[in-house]
Amino acid sequence: MGRSSAVGRRASLPLDRIVFWLWVALLFGLLAVAPDMMSRFQLLNLSGFLLNGFLAMGLCLIWGSCGILSLGQGAFLGLGGYAYGIIGINLIEDHGNTILALAGGLAVPVVFAAFLGLVLFYGRLKGVYVAILMLVVALLFESFLNQTAGPGWAIGEAHLGGNNGLGRFSGVMREPPSLSFGLGEERGLEFVGSTRAFFYLVSALLLVTYLALQALVHSRYGLVMRAIRENPERTESLGHDIRLVQLLVFCLGAGLAAISGILYVSWGNFITPDVFGVYNNILPVIWVAVAGRMSLTATLVGTVFLAWLSQRLALEGDYALIVLGSILVLSMMVAPEGILKALGDAVMRGLRALQGRARQGAEGGA
């Protein structure tokens, strides 16, 4: 029985790989031709939906693979966006590029996550305490930045702008720059949010990140992460430093959220304290939970769809979060592991059944 089961698992692997690569080819093939099928406004919106994918996959990694629920990933998105914008405003005229701003936008949230992670994981906090503390941290940033209006709140040439957003206050308007790579005063290659170049940049980064995270979660390190999610005490008793693993995964999730923040600022050339608010911290949790927190594929597809749905609901009234919350409750009742993940598992079971029947027919014919 054990041998036949192992043989069955080995036989199913090629099918899994074929389906995976067909899915990747289909998804990014559609993204490759999307600019030819959309208006400039639609392309701008789609770019905005896609850049949420990094934030959502980071949450999927730390929550779905490592069991760390964070209600404050918006804090890292906001820190990345603000750091990128502040450095970019101060250096774009002299340097002609945003390379240092990009580096700062990644470094600041990751360093902050490392400090916070030391407190959380080496202090043995877990479960709801981590989730609540992260939300409190995000709300503290929102509260502080909302009080930074006026000319006195500035870092160099970058005025924090209070609730009006970075670079805005009465009398001065210096917007955060778009991503640009050049030398000296020449900006060279620039990625403006409404252009094809920016859309393709986001799509390419999303593909690379998605494949890298897939490799990670299916590696031996990913196996340790899942063991920590299921039974941290037993995993630690086997000799694994679970606190270090949690810290590193937490920092990786912060870095992914920071990428979303940097791209968000580059996309719209603005950022406000609202990114640290409750709404923008709860939304990613809904995206990941409804789609399937244990599946990067489900998370990516579900995030883009639900981000679009959030925008449509917001245009109709102020009940977007109510509708999305209702969807979350319904999905938890019907498919606790996520709607898209459940659908994907059902499709794979059907394909395996067809494969098994085809194999039996071939063997019978022989």
Notes on the protein architecture:
With about 375 residues, the protein is mainly alpha-helical. It contains 14 helices and six strands. It has helices at about 1-35, 40-50, 50-65, 75-95, 100-120, 130-145, 195-215, 220-230, 230-235, 240-270, 280-290, 295-315, 320-335, 340-365; strands at about 155, 160, 170, 170-175, 180, 190. The protein has a two-stranded antiparallel sheet. A hairpin with a 2-residue loop joins strand 1 (about 155) and strand 2. Helix 3 packs parallel to helix 7. The longest helix is centred in the first third of the chain and has 36 residues, at about 1-35.
Gap between N and C termini, in Å? 24 Å
The secondary-structure class comes to: mainly alpha
Widest sheet: strand order? 1-2
Helix content: over 70%
Order of helices and strands: HHHHHHEEEEEEHHHHHHHH
Any chance you could write out the topology, listing elements then pairs?
Layout: H1 2-37, H2 40-50, H3 52-65, H4 73-95, H5 99-121, H6 128-145, E1 154-155, E2 158-159, E3 168-169, E4 172-173, E5 179-181, E6 189-191, H7 196-217, H8 220-230, H9 232-237, H10 242-268, H11 278-291, H12 296-316, H13 320-334, H14 339-365
At a glance:
73% of the residues lie in helices and 4% in strands.
Features:
mainly alpha, two-stranded antiparallel ribbon, 14 helices, globular, disordered N terminus
